[in-house]
Amino acid sequence: MQLELTPQQKEKQIAYRSFVDSEIMDIADRCDRQEHTPKDLIDKLAQKGYLGAVLPQEWGGGGIDAIAYGLLCEEIGRGCSSLRSLLTVHNMVAYALLKWGSKSQKEYWLPKLATGEVLGAFALSEPNIGSDAKNVETTATNSGNSYILNGQKKWITYGQIADVFLVFAQWDNQPSAFLVPKNSPGLTIKPISGMLGVRASMLAELHLNDCQIPQENLVGRRGFGFSCVANSALDYGRYSVAWGCVGIAQACLEACLQYTSQRQQFGVALKEHQLIRQMITEMVVNVKAARLLCYQAGYLKDKGDPRSIMETSIAKYFASTTATKIANDAVQIHGGNGCSGDYPVQRYWRDAKIMEIIEGSTQIQQIAIADYGYQQHSLAAFSRDLSAKVLTNS
Question: For the range 335-341, what are the long-range contacts, defined as Cβ-Cβ under 8 Å and sequence gap of 24 or more?
Fold first, then answer.
């Protein structure tokens, strides 16, 4: 495995960090308080080509590799987890269409998604359905040259301003995926406010009441909705969230290094106290460990290695739980200041908790990772037995 970034990746990393420092850091707290992302900030993200960074250049995208995309998610996540979540869901829709969309769907939507002319949102969760995603209750029926959708979607990131939704519904009890433009008849969008974290991500509920969409808006085939379309998009989403968690943890570390260097208690800077240094040490080590797991997942994605799916789950699990712990310590180090809106660590703490829930909760990841461990153990035992038989027969 190559652990060093290429010159191109280093160059992109510097550009991403500069963009975040100049355009995001100073307004992220205000966006959080107002529960709103300014349009001009999204426009800047689009103008930089970041919204379409992962799409191939033939569709107008940046064609960057998985590692570079991870670096982008880390830096945006360092500045504002809400804006990083836009990057995540937008690219989940773009990636799903790239992999499963029809030729006409790709030709119409991908160039628009690449430039940010349209924003995509991922509509899987429902009031009664979270982790049990393949049992969504929204239904789709075929009516002539149209599909009629009925149901409700909830917690749809940037649903308030998205132009097109990738909606999952049961068609004859088979999970299927559909593109639903925001102006579709029968679609009502209701804003959600007052969330714990990622408060600027402009969540919405979608109410589909005899919502009519053209027949060509089916993505993939009937029954492909969860096993193919959703799973491939969720894998890419988890990868983005994992890197975003590294960004949150890095932001906490940087905030604590600065604060403990300036804040004086008992006649010396906080950083001179051993228990503070212990927490800083844990932060430094765990940020590096989380980033390395993300590198591993990205490296395997760029190779097309199927192990990348589970390595992404492992990275997401570790990075999200690590971000929560580090953010918790960051608030602790900041004391009363950390509980106020004057310092960003309280935002990092609230945002980090959300990361343990979205794109597969911590508990879902634990179940999957344990299964993976047993599978690897069985494969290793089978391989040893096979080798022994070959040696015996030779």
Answer: 337/259, 341/29, 341/33
DSSP code, position 195: -
Mean pLDDT of the region 191-204 = 98
* Tokens standing for residue 257: 């290094």
Residues 312 and 347: beta-carbon distance below 8 Å: no
pLDDT digit string, tens, across residues 30-76: 999 999 999 999 999 999 999 999 999 999 999 999 999 999 999 99
In degrees, rounded to 5, the angle at the alpha carbon of residue 158 between the alpha carbons of residues 152 and 159 is 30
Q: Rounded to whole angstroms, what are the CA distances from 100 to 137, 147, 176, 229, 231?
A: 22, 18, 12, 7, 11
**Residue recorded with tokens 């033939």:** 58
Q: Break the chain down into helix, strand, coil percent, rounded to 5.
A: 60, 15, 25
Beta strands 139-143; 164-171: pairing state: parallel
Q: How far apart are CA 150 and CA 143, in angstroms?
A: 13
Which residues, in sequence order, are CB contacts of 213 under 8 Å at separation 6+? 146, 147, 149, 178, 179, 180, 181, 184
The CA-based angle 290-133-360, given to 5 degrees, is 10
Q: How many angstroms from the chain centroid is the CA of residue 46?
A: 18
Active-site amino acid positions: 359
CA–CA dist 394, 392 (Å, integer):
6
Q: Which residue has the tokens 């971000």?
A: 323
Q: Which two tokens stand for residue 90?
A: 């937008």
Integer Cα distance of 205 and 209 in angstroms = 13
Question: What pTM was estimated for this model as a whole?
Answer: 0.95
pLDDT, tens digit, for every residue of 276-299?
999 999 999 999 999 999 999 999
